[in-house]
Amino acid sequence: MIAECILQKGNPELKFELNSYNRSVNESDLIQDLQRVASILNSNYVSRSDYESRGNYSATPFINRFGSWTKSLKIAGLSTERSISDYHRISDKELLEDIKNAAISMSKNTVTSTQYTKIGKFKVQTILTRFDNWDSALKQANLTPTGFDLRYTDHDLFNEIEEIWIKLGRQPTTSDIKKGISKISFKYLYA
If you average pLDDT over residues 93-117, what whole number do you get? Predict the structure, then answer.
């Protein structure tokens, strides 16, 4: 039903067909790439976000093939748990200071997570894990909340994907979303 609605609203010549990325990648290639990233990080544990920023694939083929990210790590001979030091390598104070610095560098009293991804030192996921959501981190950094950290309905999310699809003339990729083409945060579109 959603596809029919999309086809009626959009360009009739534009085909809404899902890409089949990485379906033919064999398990051995996936495991080797995961081990390669662990080597780059010089770590026995690789988080999904670390892998996705350095690996050749998304985490999805791993989860589809092996059942979970944790099982993928285990099959690759890697640790399935973070060490205590991984959680506290960066203090809350350092994270908040860097968020402030990002806003200052733009001469603004706030910064979106997309903007921070481009100019900040740390991963947005680290901040979200530590402070629960982006607006909470902004408040603790004495910055103005963006108001983007809202919950969206499925309808809102499908409409956003549809608009991006029409704008690009093809299926949007996670890379497109991470580059800031969407007004809705990546974490909501691909939750």
Answer: 91
